[in-house]
Amino acid sequence: MRRLMSIAVTVGVAAGALATGPLMTADAAVAGDPFAITNGLFVNPTSPSARWVAANPTHPDTASIRANIATAPMARWFTGTSDAQIGSAVAAYTGTAVDAGNKLPVLVAYNLPGRDACGEESAGGAADAEAYMQWISTFAAAIGNRPAIVIIEPDSLGDFECMSAAQIAERNTLLNFAGRMFAEKAPNTWAYLDAANPKWVTPTVIAQRLKAAGVSRVHGFAVNVSNYIDTAWATDYSRMIQDRLGSTTPYVIDTSRNGNGYGDGWCNPAGRRLGARATGNPAALQLWIKNPGNSDGTCGIAPTTPAGTFDPALAKHLITGA
């Protein structure tokens, strides 16, 4: 059992001293709205698909992957092992988005202790609660006043059936803490708690979990992250969650791989297709949160490709729907 930590733990004061780049100059009418103070979504030139395209200029699928995936706006995922220094990595990434014409970056924080408790393909995360608090505080401080969208901890509220009561209590403490860090340290960031998908958790249950995890501290919730639920179904699910929350809490849908709807399971199922590209419309927000072509794990039609690894064969399947 992981060591329980109080939310009162003192966390990295030095994190607040990280360079945060130029301050946003939004007036009072738009302060805190990252869409109002930017010029469209950021296209990451070093996304997994973009790196593959650059490294394989003569591959027969390169042109198609470049046109259909590598040039699309999508999230960058930050984990405890993706970057040695989380503060400098987040600051550099959000700064690059500003330098690219004041674009809006989408980031994913994915480092909770006991991460992916049920699926286990992406198991890992911070060593303990104290390490996570330090990490997420540094993450938020590194964004600072720059505009951003942050998806907080995919899978975090769907995994409860694989966790003990003590682990669930710790997780709620950490998610509340994460929400508070973005509210305090990243005033131009819209943060979203993950809310699973309708094939996993009912709207009533996920609404209860969102409340306990501190959804009132953040901008909204995210559905269908790394899954294949079609947009209409995901929208209905989101609206049912809103009803049970008793509010019009905003939501975002991951459309990266939902073009053919739900397939046979959640782990690299056959016959899936790219969904609608990110809209950048805050009134009906749809984003590519999962990076298309990245494996869900050693399963499905990519039985030898580890979770999070770009596979051009997977990318081709998503482009063609085959």
UniProtKB/TrEMBL annotation:
GO terms for molecular function: hydrolase activity, hydrolyzing O-glycosyl compounds. It is an enzyme of class 3 (hydrolase). GO terms for biological process: cellulose catabolic process. InterPro entries: Beta_cellobiohydrolase, Beta_cellobiohydrolase_sf, Glyco_hydro_6_CS. Pfam families: Glyco_hydro_6 (PF01341). The active site is at residues 155, 296. Substrate binds at residues 77, 200, 227, 266, 290. Its EC number is 3.2.1.-. It comes from the Bacteria. Residues 1-25 form the signal peptide. Keywords: Carbohydrate metabolism, Cellulose degradation, Disulfide bond, Glycosidase, Hydrolase, Polysaccharide degradation, Signal. Belongs to the glycosyl hydrolase family 6. PANTHER family: 1,4-BETA-D-GLUCAN CELLOBIOHYDROLASE C-RELATED (PTHR34876:SF4), PTHR34876. This is Glucanase. It comes from Catenuloplanes indicus.
